[in-house]
Amino acid sequence: MKTARMITGLFIIIFLGLPSLFGVVWAVGLIRASVSPEFISDLPREIIKEVPKMTDEIFKAAQDKDVISDGNTRAWFQAAAKTGISPRDLMDKTGLMSWLENELSKSLTEIGQILKGEKRPRPIWIDLQPLKNALLHPEVDNFFRATLQNLPLCDEQGEQRWQQLASKTHDRYGWPACRPSLMTAEELMRAERMEAMNDMPNEIEAFEDVRALRFFPFGFSRTIHLLSYLLFLIPAAFIFLGALIAASSPSSFFKWSGVSVFIGSLPVLLLSLFAKHLSLWAIKFGSFSWDDRWSTELHDLIFDKLGWIPSRIIDVLLSPVIAVAGVVCVIGIVLFAVSFSVRNSSRGAKKLSPLPSPASKPDQTPQPGQAKKETKADLPGEAEKPQASEPGPPEKLEP
Prior knowledge:
This protein has 399 residues and is an all-alpha fold.
């Protein structure tokens, strides 16, 4: 009977408790990350703040022969540098910088305040039309023409390559570093911008249903965090049920529960730590692909300057998973430690005295109602008197 109970409890823990605990820890950690203000609003604002400076650094480094050995790519950046307009200046003239620092940052800040419960939910739309207007701004055309003027004239092969790019008979990459006819160049530039605009929506809605957000009294983010913890009731029910069936005492119940909780959460902790560090290593040392092709020096330069962005995203997504798994592991250790205190407390119970062995001296304590038999030694003064020898039989007298 005891063996059957242990097998049944072990079956419930292994096939129901541990898999559900593994999945719930991952789910709770990722839910905490995905609805956190840090991921939705703080991180984008941090990226907006740093991208203009990084763009200028890329523009400057790409003109260095030690960084970009490809002459064609380097020639484009050198021709653009001769115009005297930096990427940040171009962003200022087209209004893109103002949109990033004001409208977009303000919308992201408000989204974070709503998630934290600091503001009442309201519809928030992120207008992308300023981004489209920046692409069609005349300053972009002027910058492109000025860059072309700093390039040498195209030969027949270069002109043919430009026409192929404009007619879309070939993929639009690897523009030759020469100056074609202005009509061909403007046609290609117009096609590139129209394709980018068609792929971009006019606006993005941050909250589709504002009325649903008003049912979260502590803020959307905090309420979702609290509700996600209720998912732990599912694996807890399976684990405690299996431990209750398999255990034969309170001490063994806590042992079964603690070991099961620890074993179910430890793989999540190790796997999330491994995934985080492996991803960061791959971002830093892995090859970067662009349009299903191996990385070029320019792509490597861009990724080297902006590689901290995917690193921060991975850190924000996986850190809550690691934290939740670590807490659950500690709970398992605590439950296992409690089992020893339960066992030690049972040792303090009153022990029954063993039965006297037959060889032991019988107890001479008088029972209630029984008079104590007095001896001469118990009488006062008798103990001090010497014991007289008992007289023997009388001697026979002879006549």
